[in-house]
Amino acid sequence: MTAFIFHTALQVFMALSSFGKILTVLDLFSVSRPIINVDVISEELGLSKPTSYRYLKELVSAELLQRLSGTSGDYTLGSKIAVLDYISRKTDPLVQISIPFMQSITERTELCCLLTHLNHDSCIDLHHELYKDISLLSYGRGCPRPVYVGSSPKVMLSYLPKQQILDYYQRFSTQLAEVGFADSEDDFLQQMKKIKKQGYYFSNGELDPQVAGLSVPVKFSSKEPPLTLTLLASKNRFEFLDLNKLILILQENARLIEQKFQSLAEQPEK
Fold it and tell me: Which domains does the chain have, with CATH numbers?
């Protein structure tokens, strides 16, 4: 009996391991590379061509990839990706809770508002509200952007444990020095402490020379870094705005989002 359980568990582990490897194919796609082929998979993932073809077959079967007709073997993302993104946008509780508050922020400030998540070595906007269709977004929902520039990543990184903060510095020390944010580990740690203590960060032309951003944390878990609420405007526009008032508006709405999420989490399951 024990041998049977071990064998079954091993089969499950191997299946999950193989599934994880198959999904790494999706990481090869980007805005600059929307199409891949078996040669790209073999070369970049270090796989044999038979294995690469098997992975492609599995992903096409799951509608996560589709083969481009009229090509010798080019593949692009499949329709299931769009379906999953739609489901995520419509059902993600943090996004759904945040939207009314973000709309209120946009109406009160007449500025664009973003909700952003830290995803390993990049930041990803989960939702944005635009003021009168005025878009200053150089990225957008789901598009990874660097963690070493802009207001939102600075705020999220400041809430990480010290060792993780240092890990980020070691990976991006060159870029952080180039943008004039930190020249040493101690400098970076002091900046992180300052940002966490003050509860916001104002970025002036870091990500885009003409755009400024103001971010505050949205703390929904003690085990994960916060999300951020960010106000985005041209640098010139921010010169005529009361920064302290904007900080209070963001922090007030961040607290309301946190409270709403906490009350939802405490509801008994039906």
Answer: 16-81 (1.10.10.10), 90-266 (3.30.450.40)
